[in-house]
Amino acid sequence: MGKDASRHQPVFMNPAIFIGSWVLLGLLFGLQEWLYMHRWGYHQIGAAIVFESWGVQFFLWGIISWLFWKYLCDFIQNATSRCLITRVLPLSAATSLLEEMIWVVFFPQIPLNHPHMPYWQRLAFQLNAEFFDNMVIFWCAFGFFRGIIYYQRYREKEKAAAQLAIQLSHAKISALRMQLNPHFLFNVMNSISSLMRTDLNAADAMLEQLSSLLRITLERGDVQLIPLREEMEFIEIYLAMQGQRYAGRVKQKISVEPELHDALVPAMILQPIVENAYMHGLCKVDREGELLVDVHRRGNQISASVVNTGMGLGTNGCKSSERVGVGLANVRSRLQLHYGESGAFMLRQLDPTHVEAAITLPLSFSAASNGNLTGYGE
User: Fold this and answer.
1) Mean predicted lDDT score pLDDT of the chain
2) What pLDDT score does 198 carry?
3) Rounded CA separation 250/248 (Å)
4) CATH class of 198-362
5) What pLDDT, in 10s, does the model give residues 21-50?
6) Closest among 260, 240, 235 to 250, alpha carbons compared
7) What are the DSSP calls for 126-164, one per residue?
8) Lower CB count within 10 Å: N or C terminus of the chain?
9) Separation of alpha carbons 103 and 362, rounded Å
10) Cα–Cα distance for residue pair 50/40, rounded to 1 Å
11) What is the dihedral of CA 268, 270, 275, 278, to 10 degrees?
């Protein structure tokens, strides 16, 4: 704890601040004594000697206390009840004696209104008057330091617990990401397999787009939060792939407020929602299908919705329980882990042929803005 305290010591334990505070406290006591003496008619005693004696006394205690903090932190922290009696109590007596011996050297004229006395006689006089007060000062400083150390240990435990909670949360999010990637790849490969039988050129283009998505995913690594523009770049490529498969059957539209390009969102948070719209809605549509991706600001939040045509949530062909599959359950879990109650997911039917999936999350921006924007937005 001694070394650790020196690295993470409170600001007020800076020697200049700490010792200066002791001196200030001594001067306040001096002011109190001077006012008391004037109240009782001791006008012959000057203010200088009163303030000097109190200031020097607490200056010495400030130095002694700071040296204890610097070199005896481990001892103060680990002292047991037995140690307090057998070691700290004798130390307090010795320290009180030492402080008084030094102080008496500086003030040979004290006690005032007494004939001049030799050093040892003056020391005995002062010890008789102030030894108990010095012991109280020592134990107050000791208790103060012990309290600081216990508080530091408590904060360190709090910090360690918070770090463990964050690490656990990141581990859960990473696990969800690992779950999502195979699910996404499986669905894309199925789409490519279907195109291989009908349109080889479209299947080839889709493979190239898939390689672009894989490259983006690998470049991101374990990054959890990314700028919205990067997420929308991923969505654009994914929609281009679906455009190959559903050529002429689905009209796609993306609308993103320009001011949100640098807003931070969880990586791959929208792709499962768009994928779900195709798998459970647009795949049932033979023509004139619609997909609208809209991202806009709502106060201090980002609202992103995906609206698609297809069979409603309550139809036999596509029940609500089916709609909330791996992808959407993943989205809901990740929003909860990232934002707690501040993030929300909603799935609702707007009319018999339109379904909306929407997420809401707190608005925050990346520290470094990038002027390179993707080709989406209005």
Assistant:
1) 81
2) 78
3) 6
4) alpha beta
5) 999 998 998 888 888 877 777 666 677 888
6) 240
7) HHHHHHHHHHHHHHHHHHHHHHHHHHHHHHHHHHHHHHH
8) C
9) 62
10) 15
11) -170
